[in-house]
Amino acid sequence: MDKKIIYSGIQPTGLVTLGNYIGALSNWLKLQNDENYQCIYSIADLHSLTVRQVPSEFRNRAISFFAQYLACGLDPQKNIMYFQSHVHEHAELTWILNCFTYVGEASRMTQFKDKSQKHPDNINMGLMDYPVLMAADILLYNTSLVPIGVDQKQHLEIARDLAMRFNNTYSPTFNVPEPLISGVGAKIKSLQNPIAKMSKSDPNENATISILDSTDDIMRKFKRAVTDSDNEIRYGEDKPGISNLITIYASCKGIAIDAAVKELQGLSYAALKEMVGCSVVDMLAPVKARYDELIKDKEGLFKIAKEGQEQASSIARKTLRKVYKKVGLVQL
Ligand code: TRP
Asked: Given ligand 1 and candidates 137, 178, 181, which is best to mutate, with the most ligand atoms within 8 Å of its CB?
């Protein structure tokens, strides 16, 4: 039986957060050992160019992201890991799909409207084309499943629409991808506003833990975490701050929420924050140690990226060739 393809892209902007680690990466670590799936992960660097980047910072951050995902335990022998810009088929398929995308549907996308509002001085074509590039990412690899959060649902929808539109116009060409909404992998919230998710680009640095934060930073951020005014350690919707801390603790320790509550009950809020902070420090210590090794060895990283590029290209090339043929481009 053919393995099902799972595809995800990661924009190299902001930080890789504790939320990414607990929410997404922990699932990906399980998936890489599951015989039924082949996972493909790209650093979606072309997507990030839709907002202005400082070239040297951008380059370093892209490399750092790649190293951080490896440091978290994603194994390049088991997953295909590469930079989007290293596989030129992404841009080429985007052009073809552009010719099947209506200006109306692209301009109605929520994220396009939000980002246009946020960057009114730079509403460029790339911003509007963002979902089409994402569709190309997904469709190039015969993807069956795309792990996504709610913010990306509309993007996956357009990828599905484009796949079906193309298939109906010609003949079955693309797999129509489904969202992979995982029940496992806890949703980690902002430490400053526990109603909102922990965001990789939150301007308030106390809200977010980077997986590379120092022990001092982690402990300080937990000390300042927003809780509530009673002093009961209980998990519940009416206690978002405390519930978030309990969730983080349970995830770091690999135990159930109930078990975490039992361990933590009776502590003062200050002691709770200290316990949770320590559990995070312990969990991230080996990740940080691996990262320090990886980032020192650029040549080693580039070798892994090159192998990823080759694996990705060989799949993407075939898909694009099929597409070019179907639309009637001359093939020599
Ligand atoms: N748009 C996604 C995000 O910001 C990143 C992304 C790019 C992606 N290409 C993708 C996600 C393909 C899934 C599949 O999170």
From this structure: 137
Ligand 1 pocket residue status of 146, Cβ below 6 Å: yes
* pLDDT tens per residue, range 189-243: 999 999 999 999 999 999 999 999 999 999 999 999 999 999 999 999 999 999 9
pTM over 0.90: yes
Question: How many angstroms separate the most distant Cα atoms in the chain?
Answer: 74
| Active-site residue, 200 included | yes
Q: 215 is written with which tokens? A: 């022990």
- For residue 185, pLDDT over 70 is answered with no
> For the purposes of burial, counting CB atoms within 10 Å of the CB of 95, is it exposed (0-12), middle (13-18) or buried (19 or more)?
exposed
Q: How far, in Å, CA of 248 to CA of 276, rounded?
A: 7
DSSP structural state of residue 190: P
Q: What is the pLDDT of residues 54-81, one digit of tens each?
A: 999 999 999 999 999 999 999 999 999 9
Quick one: tokens of 317? Answer: 């090339």
Catalytic residue at 115? yes
Pick the atom of ligand 1 nearest to 137's CA. 12
- The helix (run of H) or strand (run of E) holding residue 271 is helix 269-296
Ligand 1 centroid–CA 24 distance in Å is 13
How far apart are alpha carbons 181 and 73 in whole angstroms?
21
